[in-house]
Design brief:
Blueprint (H helix, E strand, L loop, with lengths): L5 H13 L3 H14 L4 H13 L3 H8 L10 H13 L3 H14 L5 H17 L3 H12 L5
Helix pairs in contact: 1-2, 2-3, 3-4, 3-5, 4-5, 5-6, 5-7, 6-7, 7-8
């Protein structure tokens, strides 16, 4: 059976992930990366799934070469933040996510909300509760209509 196109692989990965079938999703994601190595969404998904399946260090190794990219794609920044959180290395991820947030255009609200939520978790993990709360508050802010 053919693995399908890159887009089909990502769709299948997301379907499996939503079903909490993380190991199979990871295998599909690894196939997708063979089709398009370095694709930001695929890297973020596979790195996160490596963490979810008990190998966050492998997720960190996959995503680390991309951390100097500017602007860092939001999915990669979020995956890095979650992996660092699981490795109790939140202090490593905070500057990366803060820089990603600074690089984001104002109109990318969804990306901002996700980064603020992740920063809230990271600041909470390192004991900076006021800054964590401020980020959660920004993440929960709704755009006025």
């Amino acid at each position: 059976m053919s693995p399908g196109t890159f887009e089909e692989q990502i769709h299948r990965l997301l379907e499996l992930k939503s079903q909490k079938n993380f190991r199979e999703a990871l295998a599909v994601g690894e196939d997708a990366l063979r089709i398009q190595p370095g694709h930001p969404v695929a890297v973020a998904l596979v790195a996160g799934l490596r963490g979810r399946t008990g190998n966050p260090q492998a997720g960190l190794e996959l995503i680390s070469p991309f951390l100097s990219d500017r602007p860092l794609p939001v999915p990669m920044a979020l995956a890095y933040g979650r992996i660092c959180l699981s490795l109790q290395r939140g202090q490593d991820a905070i500057p990366v996510l803060e820089q990603t947030l600074a690089d984001l255009p104002a109109q990318q609200e969804q990306g901002r909300y996700g980064i603020h939520f992740c920063l809230g978790d990271l600041y909470d993990a390192v004991g900076q509760y006021d800054t964590a709360f401020a980020n959660y508050k920004k993440a929960n802010r709704k755009k006025s209509v």
